[in-house]
């Protein structure tokens, strides 16, 4: 039994698709199919049931997948020990999370930080281009494990010279519909039946802050964003928004979640 065949089997099992696994591994589909058949012949068992929707593991396939995960994890640890190097955890996060919470990790040798939008984060994690993603948006994926890193304190934010009245105000939000701060802002207005306002939508955090600083617009944002912006202040009732950490159940690196929490909160 070849290790490469186990890796091929594992990717087919993960994607439930020969074509997706072949694309991920850089192989042609026929080669992937051939290696699966070789593995089934060698083990004298059927590992997948095949239908129009893709590849489903049999009971025997589930057993092999579990053992393959253990083998791949052990191999990763062995490689790290032989190199005598610490593992590097690749962290992906949204722009706001990176600015607010991850700057303390930039000088840490065991962490590399990358910034993507929400959709890119999920793709990078699924394709193992990052080990962990940190986001304040809820993700529902059976492949992921999750943990709550912290709860963000979110308030209404304004320039010191601006009025705190929401009636007839310029309300500025991120254009992304799933942005939690956008949701908090618009949900508050709806809950309190405030309809007389002008809604401004922008694409970046920089434009949103500029709108608050220069054009007296209002928005709900994390309290932490005021730390280096003395001209801004918050008002109103606090809302807690959880910040989640997600990683694949099959992560083959030693992730110390408590250490990561401490480094982020220490910031």
Automatic annotation (TrEMBL):
<dbReference type="GO" id="GO:0000976">
    <property type="term" value="F:transcription cis-regulatory region binding"/>
</dbReference>
<feature type="domain" description="HTH lysR-type">
    <location>
        <begin position="1"/>
        <end position="58"/>
    </location>
</feature>
<protein>
    <submittedName>
        <fullName>LysR family transcriptional regulator</fullName>
    </submittedName>
</protein>
<dbReference type="GO" id="GO:0003700">
    <property type="term" value="F:DNA-binding transcription factor activity"/>
</dbReference>
<comment type="similarity">
    <text>Belongs to the LysR transcriptional regulatory family.</text>
</comment>
<keyword id="KW-0805">Transcription regulation</keyword>
<keyword id="KW-0238">DNA-binding</keyword>
<dbReference type="Pfam" id="PF00126">
    <property type="entry name" value="HTH_1"/>
</dbReference>
<keyword id="KW-0804">Transcription</keyword>
<dbReference type="InterPro" id="IPR036388">
    <property type="entry name" value="WH-like_DNA-bd_sf"/>
</dbReference>
<dbReference type="InterPro" id="IPR036390">
    <property type="entry name" value="WH_DNA-bd_sf"/>
</dbReference>
<dbReference type="InterPro" id="IPR000847">
    <property type="entry name" value="LysR_HTH_N"/>
</dbReference>
